[in-house]
Amino acid sequence: MNVLADMDSISYLLDYLENIIDDPNKKEEKKLAVSALNRMIEKNTDKAFTRYRSIELLKKLFVQENSKSIKIEIIRYFASIGEVSLVPFLLDTLGTEDEEMLADSIATIGTFKDPNIYPYLKKFLTHKNPYILANTMIALWSFKSYRLRLMGHAVRLAMSKDVDTKKAFIYMIGETQGHQEKEKMYQYLEDEDQEIRKQASIALAKL
Q: How far apart are CA 145 and CA 115, in angstroms?
């Protein structure tokens, strides 16, 4: 994909994406194009028409593309720009049955740092997937008025013996800078599961 490697212009990149957007055989190229947009985001935020065009193109791509990896790249791009007009679109993504995509959508909504995201996210606090629960807690943690009700869910994660739930709890502690759990993170450094030890190291580096 030399054409992408040589790109130094967002306009050129958007032209390229527009030309391949309807081609079902260009999935990898589309993913690379969106990834390139994510890397060039700093050049995009202060240009109104560039911003608008990129949003409209990526919304179209999101709707018609069935590739989960492309959809996740698009969600990450939207998270980076924090565009208010994307709110209805992002709320629609909360209806997805794909749990990885749902977790990313929740994380994206959390970047808006608005306490009124709570009514839209509260139902995910009882979700069976620990990563969806963790991302929901991370999204809401910066609002002190919600922390007391979030603590009960944090305890539920912390008490679990399930490996994935432990990893989700550790991730949540790192992202929310939960210094009160620092001793527990040190305990996880002795866990028999290598991935848990790795996650605990990453979390401790953030505390």
A: 9
